[in-house]
Amino acid sequence: MEIDGKIKLRDTPLPVKTKRSENYREITQDRVFAGVREGYFIYMIQNEVFNTNTYQPNDEEVGYFIDEVQVKVSPQQMVRMYNVFGQIIKKYEQIYGEIKNIDQIVAEKPELLTDPSSKS
Question: Which contacts of 77-86 are long-range, i.e. CB under 8 A and separated by 24 or more positions?
Fold first, then answer.
């Protein structure tokens, strides 16, 4: 393994034994908010409740989230994530076809867009 003598950066990753934490849990990302701070990026993932036995919607609620995770990422990690996610998006599209955004889906099938204010 080579090490840069000036700043002691490793150019090859160290082997890592993977083991799930006892605190491991899985959430589905329903919303994400992101921003920048000096020295790092920050994003928040929110998981929204849909139809569960514990949730009773009412007109006063704006939204209800059962989980929220905030992540801080260094600029170097963010660039690496950008590259990794770009690669896996390409691979997904090669296997399953083009990923369309909401605007494209609505343009093709406007009947899928419903008015949330209508009480049907």
Answer: 78/41
